[in-house]
Amino acid sequence: MISTNYLGYRLMSAAVVLVGVSVLTFGLIYLTPGDPAETILSQQTDQQPSQEAIEAFRAEHGLNEPIPHQYVNWVGDALQADLGQSYYSDRSVNGMIVQHAPATVELAIAAMAIALLIAIPTGVLSAVHRGGRLDVVCQFGALVGVSMPNFWLGYLLIIGFSLHLGLFPVSGSGGLAHLVLPAVTLGTGVAAIIARLVRTSMLAELDREYLDVTRAKGLSERIVVYKHAFRNALLPVITVVALQFGFVLNGAVVVEIVFQRPGLGTLLVDSIFARDYPVVQGVVLVTAVSFVLTNLLVDLSYRYLDPRIRLGGVGT
Amino acid sequence: MLSRRSMLAGAVSGGVAAVGGCLSDSSGRPDDNSSVSIALEDDPTADSWDTYGYVTPYFTKVVEPLIWATESMEPTPWLATGWEAVDETTWSVTLRENVSFHNGEEMTATDVVWSFERLFERGQFVSGWLHLEPENVVAVDEYTVEFTNTEPFPAFPGTIAHNMICVQHPDSTADDLGTIGTGPLTIEAVDRGSTVETSPFADYWQDGVEVPLSFEVIEDPSTRALSLESDDVDVIFNPPRNRVEPMRDDPSLSVLTQQSSRTMFLPCNLYRPPTDDARLRRALNYAVSQSELVDTVLEGIDDPARGPISPIVHWSAHDGLRTYDRDLDRARELVEQSDYDGEPLVLAVNASVVSGELIAEAVAGAFTEIGVETDITVVDPGSYNEYVQAGNAHLGLQTSGSNSAAADYIMFENFHSEGVSNAQLFEAEGTGVSNPGKAVDELIETAYQSRNAETTATAYRDAQHRLVEEAVCLPICHVVHVIAARTEIEGIDPHPIDKMVDWSDLSREER
C-alpha cells in the first residue's frame, strides 16, 4: 500500500514543480526579445503596423499591465481551466490544445510502442550475448539510433517508403498509414536509449547469484534468462520508459513539422514564432502537467510493484 | 486461456493486417480524382473564418474584397465597380449589382457596412491601418458605400485591395462552415490544422473555378516538395530553391514563376559608425554582385535588384536606377577613404528569409575581399524587427513587400523617419535607422499624399534615386514566387501577390 504521507508529499512536490514551471514559462517568454503586438500585426497584414496600432493591440490584450499582475491573472484563469485566447486568432487556447493534443498523444504512444518492440529484444539479446558479435551489432545500432537526427531519418524514410515505394503518405494525419513513418522516426531514437538501459539492467541481473540457484535446479537457460532475470531487469526500465515520454514529446516537435502532423509540437513552434504568448504558455503548461503527473504515477506504481521500496529497502 | 503461441500468432496477424491497412491507404488522396489538392506554407485553418482572418480566406477564394490588385499592383474594381474621392477624406464606392452570396441573396451596401463593422471587431489596430473608424462606413443607397478616413489617405483604395478585407453576408458566423461569401468557392469541410475542402459556387458573378479544390498546410519546404514528387498533392507553393531545377527536369512536374512585390535587401544603419559613412556604404555595394548571389545561392530563380522596390510595382524606378556593378578596386579605395577602423560590422539576418544565412555568408565573404569584417547574427522572426529597430545592427537582411495594391507603405515603413522601422530611434534620439533625412521624408510624403498618379510616381522615383545614390541599403534580389504542379494540372495563373493566384482556369487532364 502507498502511505497517505507519501502520497501527500509527492502531490505537494508535484505542485511546487508546477508552480515553478508556470513562473518560468511566464517569465522566460517575457524575457525573449520580440513584441507580440508588432509580430502578430505584421504577420497578419504583411506590413509593418503603425505605432498606434501596436499600442492599441497592447492595450486590448493587457500587455501594458505590470508583468506580476499579468501572471496572477493568467494563473488565476488557468486554475479555473481557462488558458485564455490566442492573440493571433482569438480562438480559445483550451480548444486549440484539445484539437492538437490527440495527434501528439497518438504519435507518442505509437512511437513508444515501436521503441519497446525494438529495444527490449535488442537489449536482452545484447546482454545475453555480451561481448559477442550480436552484442557489438546491437550496441552499434543503438549508437546510430541515438546519434541520428530525427528530421534526417524522417526525410530518409519519406524518400524510401513514400517517394520510391509509394507505401505511405508523405505527410498529414488521419489514419494508420499517416502514423507509421512519424512513429518509426521518433521511436527509433527512443528505442536506442531504452535498449542500452535494458542491456545494462539485464547484465546486472545476469550476474546475480540467485540465477545460479535456478540453474542448479535444472531450469533451462531460456527460462533462467527470460522468466527470472528479464522480469527483474524490467523494473528500472519502467521508470525510464515513463521518463522517455518527455523525450518523445520533445522529439515530436521536429517529427510533427517534418511530417506535417497537426499536433502540439507544430502548434508550439508556430506560436513561439508568432509570439502568441497565451498559446505558448498554455501548451508548455499542459505538457509540463502531463509530464509531472506521469512521473508521479510512475513513482507511485514503482512503490507498488517493488516491495523493497515501500519497505524502505533498496532503491529508496 | 490464451497460450503464448496463440498470442504471438494473433500479434503477427494483427501486424500484417495493420500493415495491409496502411498499404491500402497509402496515398492519402481522396478517391475522387477530380479534386485538386494544393499545399500551402501556412495553415489555412489556423484562423477564424471571419471577415478578417489571416491565412484563412487567403488562396481559398471563399470571400472577396471590393477592390483587387492588378498584376502591376494597382487597385482595380472587383466587388466594387468604381470609387471616387468626394473630398479630401471621403470615398464613394459603387458596388457591382447582381452579385450573389453563397446563400443566394444579393450583395448590397448594408452587407458591406456589416462586413467592415465586423472587421473592426478584430481589434483597434484596424482603425489605424485603414485610417477609418467604424461609424465612418455608411450605406448611402443600395449600391453605394461612403468611407470617411480620419485623415487624408489617398492610398485607401489600394489598402482595401487586400484579400483579407472581404465582404460577407450578415448571417455568416466564424464557424468553420459558417462563412457566406461571394467567392467562386464554397467551404465543404474544414479539418483543423490540416485541410480546407472547397467546391465551385455555381452562381458566381463571373467565370468561376471549375474543379473542387483542397487546400492543405505543409509547412516544411522539403516535405512539400516530396509530397508533390510522390503525387500526394497536385500543386505546391514555394518549394526549396534547390529542388526547382530538378523539378523542371522531371517530366511529371511543371514549374511556374512569378515576380512578386517583395524585395530582399540589407538596410544600413545610417546613424551608427561606421555605416554612418556613405563612402563605406558605397564600398559595400561595390563589393557585392547581385547576379552572382542569385545564380549561386538562389539557384538563378530570383531577379537581381538595383533598388528596394520591385519592378512589379507600377511606380518603381528600377530600370532608371544607377547600378553598383561589382568593382573591388573601387570598393577598396572607398574603404580606405572611409572612417572604417577594422571593427566587424554586425549583420542581423531575419531567420524567415529563404536562404538568408547563405546570402549573409556570401555577402560577408564579399566584404572580406575589400577588408571589411562581418559578424553574422541570425535573429528569429519574432525578434528581428525589435533588434534592428533598436539600432543593434549595422546591416539587416530582410524582405519587404506588399499584400495589397497600396505598396506605398514599403517606402514609408522602411525609409521615412516616422516609418515603423525608424520611428523608435527617431523619436527617442532624433536619428532613426535607415531614414536618410528630411529631403527623402518630404518626397515620400508628397507621393503618399498625392491623388495624382504622375506626382506620386515622380516623387517616389526621386526618392529611390536618392536612396540608391546614398547607398542607404544594399539590394539583393526581387523575390520570385514559385509554384510547382503535376503536369496534368493546367491553367494556374500566378499573381505578384501569391495569395491572389487565379484558379478559374484550373483543370486536371485525365491521367
Please describe what this structure looks like.
The complex is a heterodimer of chains A (316) and B (511). Chain A is mostly helical and 316 residues long. Chain A has 13 helices and no strands. Chain A has helices spanning 4-31, 36-45, 51-60, 67-79, 93-128, 133-147, 150-164, 176-206, 210-216, 221-259, 264-274, 277-305, 307-310. Chain A is flat and about 85 Å long. The mean pLDDT of chain A is 84. Chain B has 511 residues and is of the alpha+beta class. Helices cover 31% and strands 23% of the residues of chain B. In chain B, the strands form 5 sheets. In chain B, strands 1, 10, 11, 12, 13, 14, 15, 16, 17, 18 and 19 form an 11-stranded mixed sheet that branches. In chain B, a hairpin with a 3-residue loop joins strand 10 (185-191) and strand 11 (195-200). The longest helix of chain B has 21 residues, at 4-24. At the A-B interface, helix 2, helix 3, helix 5, helix 7 and helix 8 of A face helix 1, helix 3, helix 5, helix 11 and helix 13 of B.
Throw out a few tags for this protein.
heterodimer; A: 316 residues; B: 511 residues; eleven-stranded mixed sheet; four-stranded antiparallel sheet; 15 helices
- Structural category of chain B: alpha+beta
Shape of chain A: flat
Count of alpha and pi helical runs of chain A: 13
**Fraction of helical residues of chain A:** over 70%
Largest sheet descriptor of chain B: 11 strands, mixed
Let me know the number of strands of chain A: 0
The oligomeric state is: heterodimer
Helix/strand structural class of chain A: mainly alpha
Biggest interface goes to: A-B, 63 and 60 residues
**Can you give the mean pLDDT of chain A?**
84
Give unreliable regions of chain A as ranges: none
Query: What proportion of the residues of chain A form beta strands (DSSP E)?
Result: under 5%
Which series of helices and strands of chain A comes N to C?
HHHHHHHHHHHHH
Q: For the report, how would you describe the main beta sheet of chain A?
A: none
Q: Tell me the Rg of chain B in angstroms.
A: 26 Å
Number of DSSP E strands of chain B: 21
